[in-house]
Batch of 2 targets.
Target 1
Amino acid sequence: MSHTYVVVAEVRGGGLRQVSLEALQAVSLIKEEGDSVAAVIIGSQITPLADELARYVLGQVYSVDHPDLENYNPETYFSVLSSILSKLNPSAVIFGHTAVGRDLAPMVAAHLDAGQISDVTAIDSEGNDLLFMRPLYAGKAFEQKKFVNTPQVITIRPNNISPAEVASTPADIIEIDYSPTSNLRSIVKDVIRKTSGKVDLTEAKIIVSGGRGVKSTEGFKPLEELAEVLHGAVGASRAACDAGYCDYSMQIGQTGKVVTPEIYIACGISGAIQHMAGMSQSHVIIAINKDPEAPIFKVADYGIVGDLFEVVPLLTEEFRKV
Ligand code: FAD
């Protein structure tokens, strides 16, 4: 029996989210020959993004393009998505483990009467079984789960599965009409973004993060310069946010964002357990701290004992030469 897999792609800041391509790659780890793949993209003025997505999908791209869909609203997005899924009758629906994916996935799971495995970081096989790895207890343990039936709903943690490569033949794009409804319970009037950075924190390959040691809003400037040179994003500890040095949207940790960049540079961060909960899965951790006993050095792959205000500008200067 052949299966249909559906990836729900996401638009952010006028671009296609990287995690959507990672979700497509997850499908290639799950699917077998003869199975079909579709992707759904919802938004406003998304024709170029649907075209871009189609380059990575071996199947169909369902594009729902309407001014009323510019901002994510669970009611509108769910109604559009559920009507497409009802026609496709998928075996699995895959989302990015993002704010939108975390919101929509359980609604879709309930609608399809599906099981859900969330925040997947790796997919392995054992015999005929597919095993989905996910972190537990803020990354201190992992569990492997498997589905016992279909349909299935999966969310993929950003930056853990490599993105899909361009497919041999681009997908067909199927445009779906959207008729606005007047009986919505709520509408999104506007989205006021607080993140100033050009690179999304959860998808950034490199994060330069500052803690209480940064001492002020001004103190974040050298970190911003380093992040810019490295095409990365700037994050922060809760202590830095609490002190008003930066916005809470930059907070990484147990009560902030969970990130898995290729390189995490912690500047003036002690390494409290609640901070590590959000960054300990980073592939390479570099810590800059003037206290050689700081706990962050226990998880760091590379440690620099020194004053961040001396070390960070030196790093920026060196990377500028590359
Ligand atoms: P500190 O612990 O004060 O460390 C500052 C570090 O900077 C020190 O190690 C010092 O040696 C170094 N330093 C100072 N000056 C310099 C310099 N010039 N150059 C180099 N190094 C320097 N925290 C989070 O980050 N994220 C969370 O999501 C989070 N959630 C929490 C949830 C709960 C329920 C609780 C109770 C706490 C939470 N915390 C969280 C707070 C956490 O416990 C720590 O208080 C916080 O992470 C400390 O931040 P910090 O490392 O920046 O500050």
Target 2
Amino acid sequence: MEKKWWHNSVVYQIYPRSFQDTDGDGIGDLKGIIQHLDYLENLGIDAIWLSPVYQSPNDDNGYDISDYEAIMKEFGSMEDMECLISEGKNRGIKIIMDLVVNHTSDEHAWFVESRKNKENKYRDYYVWRDAVNGEVPNGLRSTFSGTAWEFDETTGQYFLHLFSKRQPDLNWENQKVRQEIYDMMNFWIDKGVGGFRMDVIDLISKVPDKEITGNGPKIHEYLQEMNSATFGGKDLMTVGETWGATPEIAKLYSNPERKELSMIFQFEHVGLDQEHGEGKDKWDLRPLNVPELKQVLSKWQVSLGNDGWNSLFWNNHDLPRIVSRWGNDTIYHEKSAKLFAILLHMMKGTPYIYQGEEIGMTNYPISDISEAEDIETINMYNERLALGFAKETLIESINAKGRDNARTPMQWDNSTNAGFTTGTPWLHVNPNAKEINVKKNLENPDSIFYTYKKLITLRKQHDLIVWGEYELLTDTPNEIFAYKRIFNGETWLVAANISTEPHSLYIPTSVKETIISNYDISEISSGTFQLRPYEAFVIRIL
Ligand code: TEU
């Protein structure tokens, strides 16, 4: 596989709304990101995945775009965006734009026109259908609860929305739509961006009349066309969000010879703590089974070979904070946050750090739905309440899996509103910011921040991490996730005890060097070694 800059890079995701406010409106902005570029350069990251900053009415916090070539007024101006790109470049940090092209906002000019009349030249930019027997066209459901069809009085038809009713799906069958998108992508490429994260890109080739939404028949045709018309051959990074991907599907998206994408986000590990089956989804809670986590992540580590590339993540703006979800955000907060950092960053693929993960930010439990902001959460609550679910059960699910958990403001210091804003924050600030914040992490050489910084440095120093073979240790206790990385005659052993109880690991060979650990360990010797609660380390054994 030809080496590319993103193969040994680490990407940092910023949710602009919650990163840093500079004008006191309680909402993060582009100037706030520029203000912290030195912090990110210190961390050592190579690129920023910037969640949408385009003009939007914020029905889905920017994932409902009304003008792809204008900046949301709360976030600043196009000049601010150009400054961010150039200031990032000055620090060797690329800006990866979030490309949301499965749907637009219902305030986008195309949709405003499309819904005016059936003869409108923009009508076929979206998916319109007649009622069937006076009802919705078929059983397609929105991810945000309810039917995926919204009736529009003006022309007496339904339009498709796989997300909110204010996010109408674009019709990618229409070549004019595709060309409009490619023109827009080239607008941003000409601005000097480093690539694109592609929102639910596996949905763009849908067959609504057959209720096919993911990985539709023309998905690879469209992506090869997009590649050729925009980023192809320009050394830009692209990552597709593909919730249903298997390793075989991932190769189709990310095999360099296919000229589609650089990599994809797969979510198989994300679904391990939920019930599966008819009508079940992330809100139906199930404890994590560590052996399943080992099996799933190891499968992804060995399945792609040289025919594809992995993204590595625990967190993003849609997921609960890992230290609360699968770690321990009380007694073993620091140990478990470092454990998940070590476990992930020693794997093969491009790691992603979500804002605040590098300091161990946690979930924020609510006690009433009035404290929730996210449309997905609120819609689920209302739908399930009407179906008879108990409020307590719904609040428990929201506290475990709600997207607001990831969207509480970045915790910069222990001042008012954690230094995020001088105004009223758009979403509650976690009160634990008094203890968990950037300032405190930077002042403590043994903090979670410096564990992430060291892991990023190690990736730059060792081709073993980037290219080495992966081998899961199978003769370990359930709770111990241990694997080897092997490259050019060198072997590293990574071990993590994902539990509050001690568990033993047999280390068969002599230990040459301790690379990193989250406990003070004078020495690790061969033989039986007892890992303490949430203990993780990396040793060189050959
Ligand atoms: O998410 C795709 C998506 O399906 C998620 O909403 C996911 O199913 C759900 O959040 C699981 O909790 C992308 C963006 O990441 C998300 O923020 C947007 O809301 C969504 O697409 C629509 O653009």
